[in-house]
Amino acid sequence: MRGSGLPRPGRGVLWRALIAGALTIALSATAVASAVLLEIDDVTSTFTREGRQSIEIPEVTRAEAGAPRTFLILGSDARYTDRKYKIKPRSDTILLVRVDPDTKRIAVLSIPRDLKAKIPGAGADKINAAYEIGGPRKTVATVKRLFEDATGQPFPINNVINVNFGGFRRAVNYVGGAYVDVDRRYYNDNRTAGPGQQYATIDIQPGYQRLKGRDALDYVRYRHGDNDFFRAARQQDFLRQLTHQRGVRKLLDVGKRKRLARIFGRYFEVDKSFLSPSNIIGLLQMGLFLANQHARVNEVRFPAHEAKNPTVNTNLYVKDSALRKSYSEFMTGKGSTNPRPEAKATKADRELSQLKRRRNKPSSISGLEQARVEGENMAVLAETKGKLGFPFYFPALRKARSRYTPDEPRVYTIRDERNKPHRAYRLVLWAGAYGEYYGVQGMSWRYPPILDDPDGTRTVNGRRLHLYYDGSHLRLVAWRTPRAVYWVTNTLDQAIPNSRLIAIAGSLRRLKR
Predict the structure, then answer these.
(1) What per-residue confidence (pLDDT) applies to 288?
(2) Are 96 and 72 spatial neighbours (Cβ–Cβ below 8 Å)?
């Protein structure tokens, strides 16, 4: 260093310094890597100690750490009697879930079990027969072929999770149950069922509530009185609401990885690559993302259709063109991105402006009808069921040709995560088509998990409405007061257009004495 007056170090000193620095970095990296590998080994050991065996599925595709991941979740209908008489189970649930950390998006796609599909090496059959023929591996091959034949592109399935009925019940109980918005009463006792018409018994009342164990399983499996389309919608909706449970979000914290591994090891089977070190690292990163980000859950509809004579042919079918569209939506989010709060004026805005100008003729919005008298009757009935402790609001508008169900308004008590009781009520309306129900919920629990993270707000008649979308469709519109919260839910298949759902929410009226 000329002119500095300081001695210039020799080349040997520089080399020794560089070597020492390199060794320090290398040893630090080795220590970190060793710690990570020890953690991975600990997680893997915790999983395998619970007694579950991993499944060999060469067809799965390795995902890079931090990259989007597609999971195939299989629910098998294996029972004790099946094992006793060596009956091979079929898959009761075939669910695809794609987690994309970059777009903060979780896509859910349920494949109906009655879909006619080509099963590699076994011809054409209902897709759930693939599980009976070759278990999870054959199901993976069948699902991949279904999408690849339609799109001409590889369909990556990165991991497989297999669960039976007992495992599902116990896993839901382990996380404390799931708060679910139940659209109507689900009831079946088999008293009038004939030979071969027996379905699982169930009795679940409508309204927002916590489902556990058997009730949770019966709810997602229910098919008596509707069909595979609504069953798939219920399963997707249950999974979406489960991801919003605060207890589940805490469980996904990387700091609780061993506890999460115990749950998976105890109640689920996974593919063998699931437990590889590189995959565990990626899953830990994904868990960190899910625990700290407000990911949007998009329910992608599977575009199946019935046969011309469904009473004779119970198979469902899908056109390649429709499947390509769902594939794009599932993989990329195209067509399913939730609207931004500052989005441009929509048809809903224009029709609501008309409503504001024509306050004496609110039914001028197409597809709606006046329902104030029926709503007041429901409010009077609710008063006979005990004190609510907050005002009862009913819709002055309803979807044209819809009707209140024969059941009276449900008035009940719900307990929050801290076990504090809150009063609540539910109004249920049949939307006029098979399996379609919507409703109005009110309760004194003002901040339940279902209302976390609204997609936007809209002011109607002086009320600040919170909007919750699934893709471009509104699934729920909520409104808070100082004493309670109220919301209007769409049907499971989101049959009510956005403008009408907002108008129904804007028409909520209080019973006056």
Answers:
(1) 56
(2) yes
> What residue ranges in 262-420 does DSSP mark as E strands?
269-270, 296-300, 305-306, 316-317, 368-370, 393-395, 397-399, 403-404, 410-415
Per-residue pLDDT averaged across 9-22, rounded?
46
Do the beta carbons of residue 389 and residue 444 sit within 8 Å? yes
Q: Are 103 and 128 in contact (CB under 8 A)?
A: no
Tell me the C-alpha distance between 106 and 99, whole Å.
Answer: 5
DSSP letter for each residue of 130-187: HHHHHHHHHHHHHHHHHHHHHHSS-----EEEEEEHHHHHHHHHHTT-EEEEE-S-EE
Which DSSP state fits 334?
Answer: T
Q: Which residues contact 421 (CB under 8 A, 6 or more apart)?
A: 413, 414, 415
d(CA 428, CA 72): 34
Q: pLDDT tens for residues 317-371?
A: 999 999 999 999 999 887 655 554 444 445 545 555 554 444 434 456 789 999 9
SS3 category, 271: strand
Residue 435 tokens, joined: 């399996």
Distance CA 274, CA 262 (A): 14
Phi, psi of 276 (to 5 degrees): -75, 150
- Its pTM stands at 0.76
Nearest to 446 by CA among 506, 476, 486: 486
What is the rounded CA–CA span in Å between residue 220 and residue 236?
9
How is 407-443 classified by DSSP, letter by letter?
A: SPPEEEEEE-TT--EEEEEEEEEE-SSTT-EEEEEEE
CA 304, CA 109: separation in Å to the nearest integer?
A: 12
